[in-house]
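Z., the sequence and structure:
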Amino acid sequence: MKGDLFSSEYTVQPAATAGMSVQNSKSIRYAVNGEMLARQGAMIAYRGNLQFERKGQGVGGMLKRAVTGEGLPLMAVRGQGEAWFAHEAQNCFIIDIDPGDVFTVNGRNVLCFDASLQYEIKTVKGAGITGGGLFNSVFTGQGRLGLVCEGNPLVIPVSPQWPVYVDTDAVVGWTANLQTSLHRSQSIGSMLRGGSGEAVQLMLQGEGYVVVRPSEATPQKAQQH
């Protein structure tokens, strides 16, 4: 076969390393030799001797109550082979987590991760009863975490001198040593102008980074996740 579609730009080459790698901007490839975890429904192709098992809510098998209000069920992928993961053609990124690192992430942005990582669901401190950002997933240990994001994310440094205020519907995650609290905007004008002039934002203080996506989840979009 000939044509641009069959060029090296699109044709999958043999995996250079085991584990997780970015296949292209919209998908992640995982060369499996043992076990890994991914969100259910995210596998778009695989080859080799792989078995897929739904992870139940027991024993921490579900990232419960993502910021959208939806649960994020997981599946375990076991065996030897290769699998490709994607979600709604969103952009894909990989984070390397080392011992001592802590990364808090919105469940809707989790695509796949190494089985060597530990995670737990925690209430975002200071979030009160706000509809966004109440529950997030906290990853620790050592391994790689694959994320999806609508558009290219913004990675904003946070320092004691420069706290950052983020829309609770746009935040993807943040690093350790950041303190969170709700900040209520007093600018009535920002609310009247429409757009993203929310009255309440999540304030992050300390030393680290916060990751924000360049879009906000609408109720209709959130229900699809």
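The first strand starts at residue 19 and ends at 24. The helical segments are 188-192, 219-224.

Let me know what you think.
H.
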